[in-house]
Design goal:
The protein has about 140 residues and is mainly α. It has one domain. It has 6 helices and no strands. The protein is globular and about 50 Å long.
């Protein structure tokens, strides 16, 4: 549903950064409270995250592909894949270790808190540079 609506609703370029940052922070907050909720609210939680996540992923991927010169896109995509895989592997080990000593709910809450804080530190602190990625004009081609 979220992906289908993405093609019906046009988010202005000037609002894309704000929307995507809101989604990142909402997603992290929803992750933090996921295992503390009763099952029906868990389903609603994941539904909201799926709706928002698919929309922000489409916006982010389109912005990155539009901003990066065509000759570098495959390299950047491959490098991003390596970073995501390495990060997931490392943090899976850390969360597995925490799961051995803490309740699972606390592990997810700690992971969500870390992600929430990382969003502020890595994205909001560099808002000017990140915003340029989302607001670059398609006619610019390379985002220069």
């Amino acid at each position: 549903i979220g992906s289908a609506l993405q093609y019906r609703i046009k988010i202005p370029d000037k609002k894309k950064f704000g929307f995507v940052f809101f989604v990142y922070q909402t997603y992290s907050a929803m992750d933090m409270c996921l295992l503390w909720l009763p099952y029906p609210l868990m389903l609603l939680n994941r539904g909201i995250c799926g709706f928002l996540g698919s929309n922000s992923a489409i916006i982010r991927d389109a912005a990155v592909q539009r901003y990066i010169p065509e000759r570098l896109r495959s390299r950047v995509n491959a490098f991003q894949g390596v970073l995501v895989t390495a990060g997931c592997s490392a943090f899976s080990l850390v969360m597995g270790f925490l799961g051995e000593i803490l309740d699972y709910r606390w592990c997810i809450t700690i992971g969500g808190t870390f992600t929430l804080l990382a969003g502020f530190v890595l994205i909001l602190v560099r808002q000017k540079e990140v915003r340029r990625l989302y607001e670059s004009d398609i006619s610019e081609g390379t985002g220069n």
